Amino acid sequence: xxxxxxxxxxxxxxxxxxxxxxxxxxxxxxxxxxxxxxxxxxxxxxxxxxxxxxxxxxxxxxxxxxxxxxxxxxxxxxxxxxxxxxxxxxxxxxxxxxxxx
Length: 101
What we know:
Blueprint: E1 2-4, H1 8-20, E2 24-28, H2 54-65, E3 70-74, E4 89-91
Parallel strand pairs: 1-2, 1-4, 2-3
Helix pairs in contact: 1-2
């Protein structure tokens, strides 16, 4: 499972996947830091997370929901192919630049 982006849509998708019991999730390319304006719509973050990178905080908070989940994160642009097989991709990017898979 690959989720591109961990913002408004991505954080909801990621939380639901973890709660549904998916075991292997890759979070790719959300290089942004969390800021105050994100908190009203990005469910994985709170005020203690302001200034931190979304991919790192999302992994930390998702593992609090389901510790048995294997979450791999990439805090970079998508520039490579994957060695492992990916069954499903969720495009939760907020702009076209991120969508170049």
